[in-house]
């Protein structure tokens, strides 16, 4: 057990906090003992993870409602949601608690912001054809919300295509500036820029502060940062970032039960026009109040923020300590996997949050999204590995550089996550599963009568795969050195 330290989380109590102790390894295992055994969960990024103590706290809130719903609604619900909002306000360095709303998830927050933009088009405040700029890798639900609220009201959409793999943030900045220029073409105005703080797939940290600054310089009306993966994974300071709207899920990297998120709205004249898409009797009382009551439902995930902070404070360095250790660990594991497979990371380590993209052996033959999906299912069903996979279509210049040899290019990437419950064994299990698949492929190809040859591409060994020697019409088995 570690040395005692002073708990900086006051839970709204101004009294001197009691001494606490760092969580032990055995306690940590108990907190996540409900995870399915024998499964390497290296996909915390999708749905997060909730400790047993927080699940218990959530159940206490659920029971409190079920025991006496009227008393809970009248005397407890709103005050405790306000308490959660206040804690989030301090956590993200917001100016005022009124700027913070608690909502179900980032998808709900996107609907709130894009509904507001759609109304501006419908009411004539924005001109038909004015633009919304977004990254090509924006979350699919955000793209659908743009379609539902903005394009049908007359807005146009400019998609910024980001390169991948990436070698620096400057590549993102250059692409974004070009996207804004297209948005402003022919006298149009860019009414909203949607910027991911951390893109989902492929995963990379976006230089949001710089992109927000560029938006201000270029006269973009409003900026919405979709930071679904951010809180608990990267440092979040909404005043420093400077966006008009900033959302992050609390259930992904912040240990809350699903689903819950915060939406920060910078104090602006347009704030009264922001409304929750589910209309209740609180309509018109401000977004934070509207969001705190959208009808009878289970609000327990919004109420456990104090208990979550207590849990986080059991770790050395609190949330920043967890974040740094996860980042360091995921980079270390990504580099281990890339070395084992003779591949590469999808971005420099400083552009990785608590997730990293790792190239898969080219011999796996991933040539479509469907291939990636099938391989992911196979890893889950046959190896007990849960990890999302990404297909990255090769660029023409990459194909030309390889003299048309598409099979030498890395087109499959794994997005690995690291959270406090992960161990090195999880990543070794993934490494060994991929190695086994490659070896199995080699054996199958050998039985087909393929003749093995050696091929090395840019210092990376690619094992397996079939080539046709056009001069002899002979199948060749491509092996690493």
UniProtKB/TrEMBL annotation:
Domain annotation Aminotransferase class V: ranges: 80-359
Keywords: Pyridoxal phosphate
Signal peptide annotation: none
InterPro entries tied to this protein: Aminotrans_V_dom, PyrdxlP-dep_Trfase, PyrdxlP-dep_Trfase_major
Pfam family name, one: Aminotran_5
Name of the protein this chain belongs to: Aminotransferase class V domain-containing protein
């Amino acid at each position: 057990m570690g040395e005692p330290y002073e708990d900086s989380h006051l839970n709204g109590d101004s009294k001197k906090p009691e001494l606490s102790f760092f969580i032990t390894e055995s306690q940590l295992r108990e907190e996540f003992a409900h995870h399915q055994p024998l499964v390497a969960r290296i996909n915390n990024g999708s749905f997060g993870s909730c400790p047993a103590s927080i699940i218990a706290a959530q159940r206490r809130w659920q029971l409190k409602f079920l025991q006496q719903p009227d008393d809970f609604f009248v005397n407890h619900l709103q005050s405790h949601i306000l308490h959660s909002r206040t804690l989030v306000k301090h956590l993200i360095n917001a100016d005022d608690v009124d700027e913070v709303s608690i909502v179900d998830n980032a998808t709900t927050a996107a609907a709130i912001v894009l509904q507001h933009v759609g109304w501006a088009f419908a009411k004539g405040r924005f001109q038909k054809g004015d633009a919304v700029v977004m990254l090509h890798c924006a979350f699919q639900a955000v793209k659908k919300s743009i379609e539902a609220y903005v394009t049908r009201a007359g807005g146009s959409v400019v998609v910024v295509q980001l390169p991948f793999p990436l070698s620096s943030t400057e590549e993102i900045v250059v692409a974004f500036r070009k996207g804004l220029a297209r948005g402003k073409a022919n006298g149009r105005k860019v009414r909203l820029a949607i910027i991911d703080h951390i893109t989902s797939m492929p995963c990379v940290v976006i230089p949001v502060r710089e992109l927000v600054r560029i938006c201000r310089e270029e006269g973009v009306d409003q900026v919405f940062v979709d930071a679904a993966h951010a809180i608990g994974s990267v440092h979040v300071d909404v005043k420093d970032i400077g966006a008009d709207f900033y959302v992050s899920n609390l259930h992904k990297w912040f240990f809350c039960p699903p689903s819950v998120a915060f939406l920060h709205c910078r104090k602006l004249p347009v704030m009264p026009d922001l409304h929750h898409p589910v209309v209740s009797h609180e309509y018109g009382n401000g977004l934070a109040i509207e969001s705190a009551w959208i009808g009878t439902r289970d609000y327990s995930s919004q109420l456990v923020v104090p208990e979550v902070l207590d849990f986080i404070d059991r770790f050395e360095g609190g949330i920043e300590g967890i974040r740094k250790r996860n980042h360091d660990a995921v980079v270390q594991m990504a580099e281990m996997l890339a070395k084992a497979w003779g591949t590469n990371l999808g971005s420099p380590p400083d552009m990785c949050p608590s997730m990293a993209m790792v190239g898969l052996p080219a011999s796996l033959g991933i040539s479509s999204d469907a291939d990636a999906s099938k391989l992911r299912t196979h890893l889950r069903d046959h190896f007990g590995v849960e990890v999302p996979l990404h297909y990255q279509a090769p660029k023409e210049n990459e194909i030309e550089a390889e003299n048309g040899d598409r099979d030498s290019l890395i087109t499959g990437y794994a997005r690995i996550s690291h959270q406090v419950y992960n161990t090195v064994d999880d990543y070794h299990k993934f490494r060994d599963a991929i190695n086994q698949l490659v070896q199995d492929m080699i054996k199958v190809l050998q039985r087909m009568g393929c003749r093995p040859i050696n091929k090395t591409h840019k210092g990376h060994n690619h094992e397996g795969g079939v080539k046709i020697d056009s001069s002899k019409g002979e199948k060749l088995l491509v092996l690493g050195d």
